[in-house]
Each structure stands twice: as C-alpha cells, then as structure tokens.
Amino acid sequence: EVQLVESGGGLVQPGESLRLSCAATGFPFYTYWMAWVRQAPGKGLEWVASINQDRSEIYYVDSVKGRFTISRDNAGASLYLQMNNLRAEDTAVYYCARCGRGGVWYYYGMSVWGQGTTVTVSS
Amino acid sequence: SYVLAQPPSVSVAPGKTAKITCGGDNIGSKSAHWYQQKPGQAPVLVVHNDNDRPSGIPERFSGSNSGNTATLTISRVEAGDEADYYCQVWDSRSHHWVFGGGTKLTAL
Predict the structure, then answer these.
(1) Which chain A positions have a beta carbon within 8 Å of B48's beta carbon?
(2) Do A107 and B92 lie within an 8 Å CB cutoff?
C-alpha cells in the first residue's frame, strides 16, 4: 500500500525548533519529487517546500526561507523538515506529499498525502 | 508572485452540475490540479494536468483549463461531494507550488 506517515509535531514556544519526519512505503521513494504543505487552523493549503530526487533542486515559500530546511534520505525512504526559529504563524497541520517524477513531474500534482502532523507554536 | 483566485463558496442541488473556477494570469499555459478536502482529512487529488483523473476518482469529476480560468466540473453532485476544493499550479518562474484559496462546495 502506498503510504506516507508524518511524525514529530508538537507544542513549542516561539523561537524553538522542531523536526518533522515523513516515512514513505509502497512506492520507489527515490524516484519522486516530494513536498511539505501546511494548513493553518481554519485556513487553506499553503505549500512550504519541495525537493527533487537527488536534492539538487530545493525550493521554499518565502515566509520560511532561512528558517526551514527540507531534506530526504532515499535509502531510508524518508522526508524531513527541520523548522528553526518557529513563529506563532507557523502553527498548522503539516502534510507530507508525493509529487511527480520525470521531465514534466509537475503535471502530476500531489498524488499521495500523509495524514498530517500538528505543529503548535505558542508561549 | 503568481496568484490563483477561487470563489469562497459554491452551492448546487444534488443531482445537478457544479462548476468551480480558478482564475490566474494565463493559467491555460500551466498544468492545473484540483484537490478535494473533507473536514479533518488530508486533501485528495481529484484532477491533475487539467483534465486527468487519478485511479479511483469517479468520472463525474472533470476539468478544463484555458485562457485565464481553470474549471473543475462535478456532474450529478452527491451529498458526499460536499468538501473544500483547491486548485493548484506549479509556477515555473518562481519554482513555487501555488494553491488557490479554496472553494466550499455545498449540496443544498
């Protein structure tokens, strides 16, 4: 079964750090672009970061640049999001998502999503 | 930055056809995707690449994309289709994924 399972969320104070993990099973993880998407309470979806198969292409939404780092371990089929200097506005459910592969990988959208992990930043 | 605009809500009677629009500058030149999200659940991809359906998605869901508007069409709407729907594109200029603000579909 194709599956993504996130972990690592929790309650932290502003300025603190958190590392999210996403374990992938049921598909060749190393062949796919991957992404993190978040959803603040009662709000819409917001893309956070993307990474290609060999980590040569990494992109971030402007609001997290310099604070968040996306990474992947292809051997362990895992995706990560290191979040530093967290702010109240980072409070959200964070989803791990599988994107496409190949030359037009963006034609496929995000076809597999995890169940999400909740990050709450509050003093 | 690239922006996608969706109506906040769309209402339709069960059995009728719902159309949810997604406006963006020359969006017809991009590949548009649509997601369905029910309360407390993760999003589900219902249409990718303008009008392709992932396996398991009913034929009632279809899409189109031309000019400045992409459209998700849901035929013979059922109560179970009530959800938030989001459009999405990849902006190759900024290397960003962009989501629309979402549309809440209500089956009256």
Answers:
(1) 107-109, 111
(2) no
| Minimum Cα–Cα distance from A34: chain B residue | B97
Q: Quick count: other Cβ atoms within 10 Å of Cβ A78?
A: 17
Please tell me whether residue A108 adopts helix, strand or coil conformation. Answer: helix
CA nearest neighbour of B46 among B81, B79, B15, B8: B81
Residues of B in contact with A50 (CB under 8 A): 95, 97
Beta carbon pairs, A and B, within 8 Å: 60
The set of long-range contacts for B72-75, using a CB threshold of 8 Å and a minimum separation of 24, is B72/B19, B72/B20, B72/B22, B72/B34, B72/B46, B72/B47, B73/B17, B73/B18, B73/B19, B73/B20, B74/B12, B74/B17, B74/B18, B74/B19, B74/B20, B74/B105, B75/B17
Token pair of B91, please?
């902006």
Q: How close A116 gets to chain B, by Cα (Å)?
A: 7
> What residues of chain A lie within 8 A of the CB of B90, using their CB?
106
What pLDDT score was predicted for residue A5? Answer: 98
- Contact between residue A85 and residue A15 where contact means Cβ atoms under 8 Å apart: yes
Residues B1-5, mean pLDDT to the nearest whole number: 96
pLDDT digits over A13-33, tens only? 999 999 999 999 999 999 999
Report whether A73 contacts A30 (CB < 8 A): no
What pLDDT sits at residue A89? 98
Per-residue pLDDT tens over the stretch A53-68: 999 999 999 999 999 9
